[in-house]
Design goal:
This is TRAP transporter substrate-binding protein. Pfam families: DctP. Belongs to the bacterial solute-binding protein 7 family. It is a single chain. The chain is an alpha/beta fold. It has a single domain, classed as D-Maltodextrin-Binding Protein, domain 2, CATH 3.40.190. 46% of the residues lie in helices and 18% in strands. It has 13 helices and eleven strands. Helix 2 packs antiparallel against helix 10. It is globular and about 60 Å long. It starts with a helix and ends with a helix. Bound molecules: (2S)-2-hydroxybutanedioic acid (LMR). The site of (2S)-2-hydroxybutanedioic acid (LMR) has 10 residues, from loops. (2S)-2-hydroxybutanedioic acid binds next to loops.
Length: 327
């Protein structure tokens, strides 16, 4: 009898130990945009897919709207293990790598098709591991779209931006881009943009249609110029330490769920590029201006010298490869 009790106890202990080992892996996914955006929707889809396919093994919690961390803090938090996934804009990695600055060069990609071609090609794929030395891994690109410029005055030619204060993301390339038209760029967190515009502490900003719509920038900016002058896309990242701590099978399954969520998010991005622009036009709160070919050319000529300034940091060959994606 005593033997039997001992056997039962050891089985119970073993089961208990197994249960402890099998506690679900926690993934906190932090981002700064609203839920009704390509990134917001992608993160929700990722959570749903993980719930469906990896129930009990992995638990994803999504924190939108800078609830947990702003983009300027999230990568530090990731290296400390306080958050496991994020998808900052490609413009927010310059502290970790110079190569991703390529995505900020003004008028480099003619449209999102060219961006996709470059990202999925060999050079774009190589850039996913450009953060490795800093302890981060790029798991995939996610689209938002081409950027437009909004302001308190109509922007038709570069001199219209002269002396005006523009909020930018933390990127030296974007700083140089606005300095090239004699504007005053200010690096500010996304969470502060609406208030800065509303209080007229700044005159303008650049962003995608979905960000301008979902964060209501159009309600406090009387003019939006359809410039399509640059891209705002994301890199979904995690820390090497967290990623390598996962079992191979689990890592593969999480990556698959993420890939599927990215495909879904990219579909939303393509849709919202058009629909959010239309919602802004319909609101009549902001006038959407288009540029003639001659006006646009003036912006190109003013801003393109920025490429040369960053050519050594980014690499001339990489810039050529990105340009080739336009063909
Ligand atoms: C911004 O700061 O304007 C964007 O990076 C926000 C975002 O994540 O789309």
């Amino acid at each position: 009898m005593r033997l039997l009790t001992a056997a039962v106890t050891s089985i119970a202990l073993a089961l208990g130990a197994q249960a402890a080992v099998a506690a679900p892996v926690e993934i906190k996914f932090s981002h700064v945009v609203a839920e009704n955006t390509p990134k917001g929707q992608m993160a929700i889809k990722f959570k749903e897919l993980v719930d469906e396919r990896l129930a009990g093994k992995v638990e994803v919690s999504v924190f939108p709207n800078s609830q947990l961390f702003g983009d300027n803090k999230v990568l530090e938090a990731m290296l400390l293990g306080d958050v496991q996934m994020a998808a900052p804009s490609l413009s927010k990695f310059q502290k970790y790598t110079k190569s991703l600055q390529i995505f900020d060069l003004p008028f480099l990609f003619k449209d999102m098709e060219a961006v996709e071609k470059f990202q999925q090609g060999p050079d774009g794929q190589k850039l996913l591991s450009s953060l490795k030395k800093k302890g981060l891994i790029g798991l995939g690109y996610l689209h938002n779209g081409m950027k437009q410029m909004s302001a308190s005055n109509p922007l038709k030619v570069p001199s219209d931006a002269s002396g005006k204060k523009f909020r930018i993301m933390t990127s030296d390339v974007l700083q140089a881009q606005f300095e090239a038209v004699d504007a005053v760029p200010l690096k500010k967190p996304f969470s502060e943009v609406f208030t800065l515009l509303q209080t007229q502490a700044i005159d303008g900003q650049e962003n995608t249609w979905s960000n301008i719509y979902s964060k209501k920038f159009f309600e406090v900016q009387p003019y939006i110029t359809e410039t399509n002058h640059g891209v705002l896309d994301y890199l979904v990242v995690t820390s090497t330490e967290f990623w390598m701590s996962l079992d191979d099978d689990l890592r593969t399954e999480i990556q698959k769920a993420l890939n599927d969520a990215i495909v879904y998010g990219n579909g939303i991005a393509a849709q919202k590029g058009d629909s959010d622009k239309q919602l802004i036009i319909d609101s009549k709160r902001s006038e959407v201006l288009t540029l003639t070919a001659e006006e646009r050319q003036q912006w190109v000529e003013a801003m393109k010298p920025v490429w040369k300034k960053f050519e050594d940091e980014i690499g001339a060959d990489l810039i050529k490869a990105a340009e080739a994606a336009n063909n």
